[in-house]
Design brief:
heterodimer; A: Rossmann fold; two-stranded antiparallel ribbon; B: Rossmann fold; seven-stranded mixed sheet; 14 strands; binds magnesium ion
Chain lengths: 285, 315
C-alpha cells in the first residue's frame, strides 16, 4: 500500500496490541506472548506489503499469507476485522460457542488461507501455493509466518528442501524468533543453534531483522526476492510478550490469562507508550 | 460379468486414464514421493513435466503441498504406497485436506498385503479405518482395471477429498469396458435369497467366485461390490438384510474398522442381522506373497463359501 508511513504502522501496531490483550482477557483464552511478538510483523505485512483486497478475499492474483504458528490468532483476527475481511462485531465471538473465530484459524474466515494450529504444516502449504503461482505464471507472493519452537517439526525441513529444489523465489518464510516456547527457552527445550546457518544450508537466502522495528521490516519485505530463483527466509528477532514490560520474555506468559489487575496494568502501559510516541512525534515536528 | 482377464494392475490403469485427461486439463497435477515407478506415473514425469511434482521421500510435505495447490485452483492427484501415505501423512490428510476441505485425490497404491513378503511396514491394513474416521473424506477401492478407468473419469469432476486404494499386482476383470462409476452407489453383481456377500476392492473377485462355488451347491447369494466404503450405500445394505438375514463382508484390511465395521454400523442402527467380517485378523500378518497371505487367512473363494455354508447349516 503506497502512502502508508512508518508512524501509521507503529500506531496501528499499538492499537492491535491493545486489542490482543482485550480479546484474551475478555474471552479467557488465547496465546498472549506469541501474539504480541508477531504483531509488528503482521501489521507490516497487512497494512503495507500484502497485495490483497478485503472486498474480494479469493482474488486469484492476491498474495497469500499463512499463519503457520496458528496459535497467534488474536492479532490476526483483529487485523482481518480492521481491514474489513470480517465484521468487527464478530471479534466478540472469539472462542465462543459456534463461532467461526476458533482458537486457531480456519478457511471459513474470509482472508484466511489455511487451517493451522498443528505446527509444521504452513511452509509445505506455502510451497504448494508458490508452485501453483509458478505454474500459472502469476506474480503473487506467498508469506509463511512460523514460530521458533515450531522449527523442531521435521516437516518444515522437508518443505525447506523442496522450496529450494523448485526455485520458489515467490515464497517467503518468516521466523518469529522470540527464543521461547511453551516449555521454556528454545535452547533449553530443543536447541536451534545457528538457525540462520541452518536455513542458509538448505539453500535459502536468509535476512535477519529486528522484528519490532517496522521501518526495518518494511525495507526487508520490499527487497524480496533477495535472490532470483531462491526462497527467502526472514529471521525476525523478537521478544515474546513485546509491549507489556512485566510479561516480556517470560515463558509463563505463553498462554497465561491476565487477572483483572494485570489487565488494567497492561492496557495502561500500552496506552502510555502510545502517548510517549505522540509526544516524540510532536517534538520531532 | 466379463470373461476377459487383464494382466494390468489397477494402479497402471489409473495412471493411464488420468494421463489422457491431464493432456486436456492443465490443472490436473500429479504429485509423488519418489514413487513414480511403483505408482506408474512415469508417463507424467516424461510427457507432462509441468504437471508433475516429485517431492522426494517426504510424505507429510507431499500432502500439504497438494493442499496448497488445490487452494490455488489446481486438481492434485497424490500417488504413493498406501502404507506410507495413510500413516505417515495422516495428520496432513486430516487437517490440510479434509478439515480445510480441499479437492485433493489421495491415491494409495500397492495397498493391503500386495507388497507381500516385504512385511508389515509395507502393508496397509488400517488405511480404510483411518480414512473413514475423518470427516469430509470419501473412501473408494476399485476392484479391476475397467472399473478403475471408469473411476478416474468420475473422480475428475468429484470436487471433494477422496482416498483411493489399489493393489500392486495384476487383477482379473470383474467388469466389462466402458462401465460407469457411480461414487457412493454399490453394484449388485448377483442376486439370491440365501445370503449376502459384500466385498470391496480387489477381493470383490474372490467374493464373486465364492458365490459361484455356492451356486454349484444350490445356494444363491447376493454379491455386492461396495467400491465406495464412505459414503456407504446404506440402502443396498438394508435391502440385503431384508432379503437374506445373513451378511458376510470381505476385505483386504484389518477386521477392525474397515468395510465390515462400516456395514455393521448401518445394520445395528437400522436392521440388525447376523454378520461375519472376513479380513485380516488383528495381528501383524504372516510372511508370504499376497496370494499366500490371503490364503492363510481364508480370504479365498473356498474360505468365503465355507463361512456361508457353515452359517446356513447352523441356521
Ligand atoms: Mg517462540
Amino acid at each position: 500500500m503506497e502512502g502508508i508511513d512508518i508512524s501509521f504502522l507503529e500506531n496501528k501496531a499499538k492499537e492491535i496490541r491493545r486489542n490482543i490483550v482485550d480479546m484474551i482477557y475478555h474471552s479467557g483464552t488465547g496465546h498472549i506472548g506469541g501474539s504480541l511478538s508477531s504483531t509488528d510483523i503482521l501489521v507490516t505485512l497487512y497494512y503495507k506489503i500484502l497485495r490483497i483486497d478485503p472486498r474480494n478475499p479469493v482474488w486469484t492474483d492476491r498474495d497469500r499469507f499463512i499463519l503457520s504458528k496458528g496459535h497467534s490468532v488474536e492479532g490476526y483476527y483483529t487485523i482481518l476485522a480492521d481491514l474489513g475481511f470480517i465484521d468487527r462485531e464478530e471479534l466478540k465471538t472469539y472462542c465462543k460457542f459456534n463461532s467461526r473465530l476458533t482458537g486457531h484459524p480456519t478457511v471459513k474466515i474470509p482472508g484466511v488461507e489455511a487451517n493451522t494450529g498443528s505446527l509444521g504444516h504452513g511452509l509445505s502449504l506455502g510451497v504448494g501455493m508458490a508452485l501453483a503461482g509458478k505454474m500459472d505464471k502469476k506474480d503473487y507472493k506467498v508469506y509463511v509466518l512460523m514460530g521458533d519452537g515450531e522449527q523442531a517439526e521435521g516437516s518444515i525441513w522437508e518443505a525447506a528442501m523442496c522450496a529450494k529444489h523448485y526455485k520458489l523465489d515467490n515464497l517467503i518464510g518468516i521466523v518469529d524468533r522470540n527464543k521461547l516456547q511453551i516449555g521454556g527457552p528454545t535452547e533449553y527445550v530443543m536447541s536451534l543453534g545457528d538457525l540462520s546457518a541452518k536455513w542458509a544450508s538448505f539453500g535459502w537466502e536468509v535476512v535477519e531483522v529486528n522484528g519490532h522495528n517496522i521501518s526495518q521490516l518494511v525495507t526487508v519485505f520490499e527487497s524480496v526476492p533477495v535472490k532470483y530463483n531462491k526462497p527467502t527466509l526472514i529471521l525476525a528477532h523478537t521478544v515474546k510478550g513485546k509491549g507489556v514490560s512485566f510479561i516480556e520474555d517470560k515463558p509463563e506468559w505463553h498462554h497465561k490469562i491476565p487477572t483483572s489487575e494485570e489487565y488494567t496494568r497492561m492496557i495502561r502501559e500500552l496506552n502510555q507508550e502510545d502517548d510517549n510516541v505522540r509526544e516524540d512525534i510532536g517534538s520531532a515536528v | 460379468m466379463s470373461e476377459k482377464t487383464s494382466v494390468l494392475p489397477c494402479r497402471k490403469a489409473f495412471s493411464e486414464a488420468l494421463f489422457e485427461l491431464a493432456k486436456e486439463d492443465r490443472d490436473i497435477v500429479v504429485l509423488t514421493s519418489d514413487s513414480r515407478g511403483s505408482a506408474s506415473v512415469e508417463n507424467f514425469a516424461e510427457h507432462l513435466p509441468g504437471q508433475f511434482i516429485d517431492v522426494g521421500i517426504a510424505e507429510q510435505n507431499l500432502i500439504s503441498i497438494a493442499s496448497g495447490l488445490a487452494g490455488c485452483g489446481k486438481k492434485p492427484f497424490v500417488f504413493a504406497p498406501a502404507c506410507f501415505l495413510s500413516t505417515r501423512s495422516i495428520e496432513q490428510i486430516k487437517i490440510d485436506v479434509a478439515y480445510t476441505n480441499r479437492d485433493v485425490k489421495i491415491i494409495g497404491v500397492s495397498g493391503g498385503v500386495s507388497y507381500g513378503p516385504l512385511g508389515s511396514t509395507h502393508h496397509s491394513l488400517e488405511d480404510i479405518a483411518f480414512m473413514r474416521a475423518i470427516p469430509n473424506m470419501t473412501v473408494i477401492l476399485p476392484c479391476d482395471v475397467n472399473q478403475t478407468k471408469a473411476l478416474v473419469k468420475s473422480l475428475v469432476s468429484y470436487n471433494k477429498p477422496a482416498y483411493i486404494r489399489m493393489g500392486r499386482n495384476p487383477v482379473e476383470n470383474v467388469y466389462d469396458e466402458n462401465i460407469f462409476f457411480n461414487i457412493g452407489k454399490a453394484n449388485l453383481l448377483s442376486d439370491g435369497a440365501d445370503a449376502t456377500i459384500i466385498a470391496t476392492g480387489e477381493v470383490v473377485k474372490t467374493a464373486y467366485d465364492a458365490a459361484l462355488i455356492l451356486r454349484d451347491k444350490g445356494i444363491y447369494t447376493r454379491v455386492i461390490d461396495m467400491h465406495t466404503v464412505k459414503p456407504i450405500d446404506e440402502e443396498i445394505i438394508i435391502e440385503s438384510a431384508r432379503k437374506t438375514e445373513f451378511i458376510v463382508t470381505v476385505e483386504e484390511h484389518n477386521i477392525k474398522g474397515g468395510l465390515g465395521s462400516a456395514v455393521a454400523e448401518v445394520l445395528i442402527r437400522r436392521l440388525p442381522v447376523k454378520m461375519y467380517i472376513a479380513g485380516i485378523p488383528d495381528e501383524f500378518s504372516i510372511t508370504g506373497s499376497q496370494k499366500e497371505i490371503l490364503e492363510h487367512y481364508n480370504i479365498t473363494p473356498e474360505g468365503i463359501s465355507n463361512i456361508v455354508l457353515k452359517e446356513l447349516r447352523r441356521g
